[in-house]
Design brief:
- By secondary structure, this protein is of the alpha+beta class.
- It has four domains: 118 residues, ATPase, nucleotide binding domain (Nucleotidyltransferase, domain 5, 2-Layer Sandwich), CATH 3.30.420; 34 residues, no CATH class; 95 residues, ATPase, nucleotide binding domain (Nucleotidyltransferase, domain 5); 71 residues, Actin, Chain A, domain 4.
- The strands form five sheets. It has a five-stranded mixed sheet, with helices on both faces. Strands 13-12-11-17-18 form a five-stranded mixed sheet, with helices on both faces. Strands 5-4-6 form a three-stranded antiparallel sheet.
- The longest helix has 25 residues.
Amino acid sequence: MLARLFKMFSCDIAIDLGTANTLIYTPGHGVIFDQPSVIAMMGYRGSLVPYAFGEEAKKMLGRTPADITAIRPLKDGVIADFKAAEEMIKAFIRAAQKKKRHFVKPLVIVCVPYGSTPVERRAIEEAVESAGARDVYLIEEPMAAAIGAGLPVTEATGSMVVDIGGGTTEVGVIALSGIVTATSVRVGGDSMDEAIVAYIKKSYNLLIGEPTAERIKKTVGTALRSADNKAQSCPVKGRDLLTGVPKEISISANEVFESLTHPINQIIDAIKFVLESSPPELSSDIGDRGLVLTGGGAQLMDLDVVIQKATGLKVIVAEDPLTCVVRGTGMVLERFSELKHVLFKQD
């Protein structure tokens, strides 16, 4: 009875607390919030106070004066700056609930990387509790991604999911509502951006910021070299390291492919590791059904083709891969009594 009353007077939420973006899902409304995981803090009377969040704060990255600091408080899927993360989560929860007044604190389910440590998971749990949650449950990202992709996670057949996020790539084989074998590598969209920055610095003596690298990746990024890519190019502006003055160059899609080779190979190695670790019966299921790509990194052009060539498996990109994890977490919230066994708390 008490649980029903809490449900009536609170707005329970599911959060995909990602390195690059934070998404929030509420039952009956779906994904209601999608903002970059960025906070700007301003110095005030000897301490730092919140100044801006999300998209507004992201525009400030690399452009702030001395008294304002724009940071991303999560790195590799876990909290790197507890105070900043707590303030950011508070702001995001308030923004998600602003349309309706609620008298009871929300129950919150948060995704965590499979490879995160108990200390890192406890930090996420405590940050969300401090941000005003009534109760906090955790769910591992491969499970949330599989549920969001519509895979039959409760059945006695093997399902394989590869979730490529901003900070980590989660690869898991799931059966009977549990993760049978999985791995988490700290390679994702951020690693790709860093690789583009390093390539342009080495090849052109041009220094660019990660927001510019992200724009290049989204414009002409590809996982496959082709003759057509030579015609695709993207203008890039940065600081010439030799002269110190602004300079503009043009970078082709094939050059971006070269810069992304290493992070893509790391993702493929993680997939092969999980395949080699899977029980034979589940390997047979995966061979028949293939694997599903989720996460923002799954949108990289021709990545599914490259993974298919490397593994020999059918590769499917999930519908709306960017929101797959938060939708899966939200489905657990909506079917709480049926799927609550996939949740846990960190002691």
